[in-house]
Amino acid sequence: xVDSRNNKVFGYSNNFxxxxxxxxxxxxxxxxxxxxxxxxxxLYFFYVxxxxxxxxxxxxxxxxxxxxMLKDIPxxxxxxxxxxxxxxxxxxxxxxxxxxxxxxxxIANLQHDDFKYASLDENGPGxxxxxxxxxxxxxxxxxxxxYTCVGISAHISSSVVLHRQIPGDTFEGTNTTCYDYMPYFxxxxxxxxxxxDYYDGVFVGILKLFKxxxxxxxxxISTIRQRSLIKLKMPENMEIMHDQECPELENEMYCQLKxxxxxxxxxxxxxxxxxxxxxxxxxxxxxxxxxxxxSCMYVASIVPVSSSxxxxxxxxxxSILIQLFVICWAANEITIANILRK
Length: 342
Hints:
The structure is a single chain. This protein has helices at residues 18-26, 38-64, 66-69, 73-98, 100-110, 125-165, 194-222, 224-231, 247-301, 308-341, and strands at residues 2-3, 8-9. By secondary structure, the chain is mainly alpha-helical. The chain has one domain (2-341). The longest helix has 55 residues, at 247-301. It is elongated.
């Protein structure tokens, strides 16, 4: 059943990734179509150019500062953690630049209208889908805020330290440079984290959508007889010894079962696509996160607790922890859903 007012099928939302699409525009990954006004396409083109130019400068300067970091082991560790984070982000960005068609295929298969089911009560498949979408949206904006705060905190901490320790507007007579006051190396006055947040948000969204589809399939299988009776407009409390006594009901149940099997086959195919696209990136992220945890804790342990650098390191640590946690949490929910399905 389609609701013509909002074009929803059986109460499902048409787009599970609405929050991610907002981040996609901010991240410079949106591709405006020809139906968009020319001025908007041109404006977004310059915005994307600005984003990628600054990202390229950030990437180059991150490596050019290596010699400076060799003078101070804590700074070297902090720098190496940021380089790992940057490299991981570029790998993630590459997935959406070069593998966008595969991502779109996975998303389309997991939201296929042919595999949306009517609700038999107020807690049916449509409501399950909407609740999972709301949970995914909260995770997306949480990760986005955390990533943005990492960049903001770095500039705030640097500004606080400079105003406390450097009188005037220059470094003359202090025997220091701006590198001595920056918790992350090299930073530009611009946050480049949104591209990487889009990856994590979409990846978690795909995992959560996959999970809820498993739960919906399990629910539909358990209600297959009731759904067949409703479709045939037979009494729901109809009792017969064997379904063969009612060939019409038996045929309908076979049709429903065939449709469910096709849905499961689609999910198995989506599972293979997800593993093929994200497995090695997730492995790299896990290994990189372990090093970043260690480097953040080491640097935080040798600076004063009241310093702004301590705050910046802890916030970076929390952001990396949340980044890894949401992926592990979403993947674990799939395992739980699979166990419940059995």
